[in-house]
Amino acid sequence: MREPQMCSVLCRITLDAKAAKQFQEKIDDEYRVNMILDNLPLVVPIRRLDQGSPTVYQLGYHVGLKGQYTGSKEEKIFIHNHLAFTVKYHRDPQTDSARIVGFEVKPYSIKHEYEGKWSENTRLTTCDPHTKHTVVNSNTPQEVEANKEIIFTYDVEYQESDVKWASRWDAYLLMSDDQIHWFSIVNSLMIVLFLSGMVAMIMLRTLYRDISKYNELETQEEAQEETGWKLVHGDVFRPPSNSDLLCVYVGTGIQFLGMVLVTMIFAVFGFLSPSNRGGLMTAMLLLWVFMGIFAGYASSRLYKMFKGTEWKKISLKTACLFPGIVFAIFFVLNALIWGQKSSGAVPFGTMFALVVMWFGISVPLVFVGGYIGFKKPAIEDPVKTNKIPRQIPEQAWYMNPIFSILIGGILPFGAVFIELFFILTSIWLNQFYYIFGFLFLVFIILLITCAEITIVLCYFQLCSEDYLWWWRSYLTSGSSALYLFLYATFYFFTKLEITKLVSGMLYFGYMLIASYAFFVLTGTIGFYACFWFTRLIYSSVKID
After folding, report:
1. Exposed e or buried b per residue across 157-170, where buried means at least 16 C-beta atoms within 10 angstroms of its C-beta
2. What count of other Cβ atoms lies within 10 Å of the Cβ of residue 140?
3. Which of 21, 204, 264, 328 lies 20 to 30 A from 179 at CA?
4. Can you tell me where the transmembrane regions are (predicted)?
């Protein structure tokens, strides 16, 4: 610590043909080397050309670079074999001890030279601490070729810094483009205001029309329009087909919503700093497991309302369906990474721990929740359901279920679309994502948008005397997950340069899991919004 090094020779190697080829491939694919010192990742400071803008930090340095010699057209591949490290420290004036607050590197490519034969204490002529001769540029770079020797060297320089230890991460988490986020939030708020206006109009029309009991002022036409949703009062609470599956998905959605909300609140308060590697993932998994109790409760409450009797069956399905599908996709992806002998594969022990958490904590909790939910009295319908289902009249083309479901997903997706771009960039182009405040705002906007668009479309549907709203309310807002996946595909082809098959499969596998989770989350919000809305409007109806 605080002892500068100059031109320390690390090693001298001669590449064989295979190693040289591997180096060339890695440099061609722009691989980076990452290092960590005192939990700080290594960065390469890149000065922006325009004055006054802050320095940008690139995580890790490139293994090498491609270039041409002056006057030649042929592209050569050079390796970075000299690293000039800068360690920044903050000195405590009382004790004179110091703490590391920055870790930077400038990589150089230089063909080192020395006189005579190589031995332990050979002095390099290109870089010599005794003559204070250091590497300052890459004017005589080191090529990567078979049977050429490469000498690796490094410098360490210590710089005193005013940055306190507590705020040493700030440079990494620098927000460069606030405007875009505010723009995206304003854009989303416009959508929300527009939808809120529509919901308010519907509420006023339906509920106040009742109170004024058909004033004389109204024409025959308006009365005609009015009767649409009232006519189906005898069928609107008829249990849907596949009601078990709906209960399972609603329960899962509640589990997911709980997990996301609590994680976000923790993140906003700064408990999940990126210096704690993997903290976010661990927190989400633990919360998911413990939210199982709410999943069981929500699904069995709904199940009992649909006159279901076997709460154990529904609890088991809730505990296993969503995690089972996700785990299966994850397992296949992990097997692919294993096949590539990558160090990024999740080890078998961790996989086993995940299964233990799932079956040891999550499943029992779902059953506990299911038991509590089933013991409670069933939710009463505000109106009685007729014995014989009524016929649904011919629907206009725009009220076609598929069409209205697809339309419903556009607005929630539109509300989160810009933030999504930043999240994808930070996941796949390895940058830090640390704007949880914005994310939380966007998430709240997403919740409101999902709820409102579903209510609006559900109202139009009931007005045209189509009472099959249960699944449709779930799918209307859930269809935004389809747009999410399509956008991820678009992002893959326009922003990422992934050529390997396995890497592509990984990308689409993970985006599929993310879209599936998004579907469950948004669908549940839409469903509960509709559930509340229909109960509200039908409880105010006076049936003769």
Report:
1. ebeebebeeeebbe
2. 12
3. 264
4. 182-204, 246-272, 278-298, 319-339, 351-374, 395-428, 434-462, 474-493, 505-533
Q: Are 318 and 256 in contact (CB under 8 A)?
A: no
Q: What are phi and psi of 443, to 5 degrees?
A: -65, -45
**Of 450, 475, 413, 464, which is closest to residue 533 (Cα–Cα)?**
450
Q: Give the model confidence (pLDDT) of 271-308 as tens digits.
A: 877 777 778 889 999 999 999 999 999 999 999 999 98
Average pLDDT over residues 5-14: 89
Average pLDDT over residues 51-71: 82
Number of domains in the chain: 3
Q: Do 64 and 142 form a contact (C-beta atoms < 8 A)?
A: no
Percentage of the chain with pLDDT > 70?
93
pTM of the full predicted structure?
A: 0.84
Q: Which of 95-99, 501-505, 538-542 has the highest mean pLDDT?
A: 501-505
Instruction: Report the C-alpha gap between 541 and 518 in whole angstroms.
Output: 35
The secondary structure of 86-130, three-state, reads EEEEEECCCCCCEEEEEEEEEEECCCCCECCCCCCCCCECCCECC
Same domain, 364 and 423: no
Same domain assignment for residues 120 and 19: yes
Residue at a domain's end among 173, 197, 212: 173
- Rounded to whole angstroms, how far apart are CA atoms 258 and 297? 13
Q: Is the Cβ–Cβ distance between 258 and 294 less than 8 Å?
A: yes
* 468-501 pLDDT, tens digit each: 999 999 999 999 999 999 999 999 999 888 888 9
Residue 274 sits in the same domain as residue 347: yes
Task: Verify that 341 and 406 share a domain, yes or no.
Answer: no
Q: What is the pLDDT of residue 130?
A: 78
Helix H, strand E, coil C: the string for 228-252 is HHHHCCCCCCCCCCCHHHHHHHHHH
Q: Which residues sit opposite 114 in a β-bridge?
A: 124
39-42 long-range contacts, Cβ below 8 Å, gap at least 24? 39/275, 40/100, 40/101, 40/102, 40/103, 40/168, 40/275, 41/103, 41/172, 42/103, 42/104, 42/105
CA distance linking residue 349 with residue 347, whole number of Å: 5
Domain end (from 173, 194, 225): 173
Q: What's the length of the chain?
A: 544
Q: Report the candidate in 244, 368, 397 with the shortest Cα–Cα distance to residue 294.
A: 368
How far apart are alpha carbons 279 and 401 in whole angstroms? 42
Residues linked to residue 155 through DSSP beta bridges, in sequence order: 84
pLDDT digits (tens, 9 = 90+) for 26-52: 998 888 999 999 988 899 988 777 666
Q: Which two tokens stand for residue 346?
A: 């999740």
* Number of Cβ within a 10 Å radius of residue 543: 9
The CA distance from 520 to 502, in Å, is 27
Both tokens of 143, joined, read 């090529």
Could you tell me the two tokens for 492? 């893959």
Spacing of C-alpha 100 from chain mean position: 31
Task: Give the Cα-Cα-Cα angle 454, 455, 459 (nearest 5 degrees).
Answer: 115
Instruction: Indicate whether 528 pLDDT > 60.
Output: yes
